[in-house]
Amino acid sequence: MSIKKFIIGVILVLSLTIFIDQLTKYIAFIVLFEDQQVLIINHYLNFRPVWNDGISFGMLQGYGNLGRVIFIIIALIISLWIIIYSKKLNIIGFVGYNMIAGGAIGNVIDRIVHGKVIDFIDVHYKAYHWPAFNMADSFIFIGVLLFLYNEFIVIRGKKNV
């Protein structure tokens, strides 16, 4: 992949990922967070305001500003490494890696602007709730799935032919 295509691809995937994440968080903030409102979509999905100052699934919460700064630095370093490394990958791996970076950067933006991450998607079954998440988390998850699919199905499939 040429450097020009690489840069355009990175900008495209990151921009789209971050834009969708920030737009949905902005809407959630206006609709849910200002009045602490819960929108019940169906028996399995709610939109519920949740502030997360920890990492994924609410782990490592309560570390204050030090934790916030550390999480921002770690997320940015890993995102930069992922973006640079993605140049070596085929298109599926490239998109997956840059979705992971875009999701991480989306959550970094929240930490910088709000001091915490806006989570609002609440998937549940009866009283059992998956930890609240957002579109950035979804992009990270999809990016990991794309990367794993690429590594274990696409690349291994080519090696076995």
Structure at a glance:
With about 160 residues, the chain is an alpha+beta fold. The protein has 4 helices and 4 strands; from the N terminus they run αββααββα.
Averaged pLDDT, please? 91
Provide the structure class: alpha+beta
Radius of gyration: 17 Å
Indicate the multimeric state: single chain
Biggest beta-sheet profile: 4 strands, antiparallel
How far apart the termini lie comes to 24 Å
Helix and strand pattern: HEEHHEEH
- How would you sum up the global shape? globular
Structural domains: how many: 1
Q: Which strand order does the major sheet show? A: 1-2-3-4
Uncertain residue segments: none
Q: How many strand segments?
A: 4
Helix content, binned percent: 55-70%
Please state roughly what percent of the residues sit in beta strands, choosing from under 5%, 5-15%, 15-25%, 25-35%, 35-45% or over 45%: 5-15%
* Count of separate DSSP helical elements: 4
List keywords for this structure.
four-stranded antiparallel beta sheet, single chain, alpha+beta, globular, 4 strands, 161 residues
Give an account of the 3D structure.
The structure is a single chain. This protein has a four-stranded antiparallel sheet with strand order 1-2-3-4. It has helices at residues 3-33, 64-85, 91-114, 135-159; strands at residues 39-40, 45-52, 117-125, 128-129. The longest helix has 31 residues, at 3-33. Strand 1 (39-40) and strand 2 form a beta hairpin. It has one domain. It is 63% helix and 13% strand. The protein starts with a helix and ends with a helix. Helix 1 (3-33) packs across helix 3 (91-114), helix 2 runs antiparallel to helix 3 (91-114) and helix 3 packs antiparallel against helix 4. By secondary structure, it is an alpha+beta fold. The mean pLDDT is 91. It has four helices and four strands.
